[in-house]
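Work Package 3 (structural annotation) set out to generate three-dimensional models for the target panel prioritized at the project kickoff. During this period the team completed the workflow that converts sequence records into discrete structure tokens, so that structures can be stored uniformly alongside our sequence database. As a representative example, we reproduce one entry of 457 residues exactly as it appears in the project archive.
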Amino acid sequence: MLSQREILSTLEMLKNENLDVRTVTLGINLLDCASQNLEKLTRKIRTRITHYAANLVSACNHIGQKYGIPVVNKRIAVSPIAAVGAAMSSTQMVAVARVLDEAAEAVDVDFIGGFSALVEKGMARGDMALLEAIPQALTETQRVCASVNVASTKAGINMDAVLRMGQAIKQAAQLTADCDGIACAKLCVFANIPQDIPFMAGAYLGIGEADAVINVGVSGPGVVKNALERALDTNDQLDLGQLSEIIKKTAYKVTRVGELIGREVADYLNIRFGVVDLSLAPTPNVGDSVGEIFQSLGLLSIGVPGTTAALALINDAVKKGGAFASSRVGGLSGAFIPVSEDLNISEAARKGYIGLDKLEAITAVCSVGLDMIALPGDTTAETIAAIMADEMAIGVINNKTTATRLIPVPGKKAGDSAFFGGLLGQSTIISVNNGHNPNPFVRRGGLIPAPLQSLTN
């Protein structure tokens, strides 16, 4: 728990530096709702969600007001629907998605994640039905988010699933062409997906989790940026090791705040507390940017030479500070570099400082992945799949989580702007080399074998 002194030290962060708890996410186990009858399945799902989540929003508001720390998003993550609805057809999976959306609206949460499948080694009947349903499901719902794990260090990369996801992304974009393909913003494709992610769109409740659990995602880019700038205003000769210490101490305070809120919400609801996700989560708001941290460290912009080294420093310091502050660290715990959701990164893309190649490169040092990247509308499904395969390979070989959230914007080309609204922001569309050509490589399918480092037993 926070001491009185630690609480007082966060007041400036709350007042001027955009500190908040970005999300409190309630994980709900739906596995015993499984049924071969669609009506029974959906009734059980609706009952289970409304039972556990009835007081989630009021609990978050009450605890947030108690400490003066806003909880920006209240969300739900459920068991992978591909497993829960394994007996369903793709059409029935869309009906399940509608029920998830209705239940989320009934309890007034922002998003519900878990329209998910784990297909890193192969696709069962329920997995194939869910993958086929994803475009329609995300188009017809407002709050449902989907995630698909297509690769792992233990299993390798399921290239059949990768190609299917490339096709699903294209279809989802076309179905929401009037909104710049926004359905794709609710879909993440993963390698090594964790079971306890609180952030959307990747959140789901893992098979090994309890019946219900509270996971928390904290904010803090503005806090880190301001801590660095205060220190440099006092002594502009600080070296990178000393700046790393400042980030580490700041991350400690931010994590303590997140754990305090999470544990109190869990106690209030009489639900187990899970983890704090240490990821730095930006928004399109001025002063709440991960990209600005790179400038505070001395770079002209994110994307210029030195970016990868700076990101390695930031991630290492955040993880060290956060891990010391909490014994319950989990989720993604990396740095989000969402192009459209971070005003500074979006501007860097517009000016040409950062492109797809550099965004991919920095994920090797623990950026979460290629996140909220708008692509030209004529980018082929095969090219999208190839981009995903490259990102999955980084995760598999480095034994880390990587993901993609790619949005081919119908009718628009590189250099145009895409507008997604709210926290999803806006972005310049990034060019893709040969993006309009078919890619025979990904059509070969099969399984790219697991690397040698997978043999750890």
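The chain has a mean pLDDT of 90.
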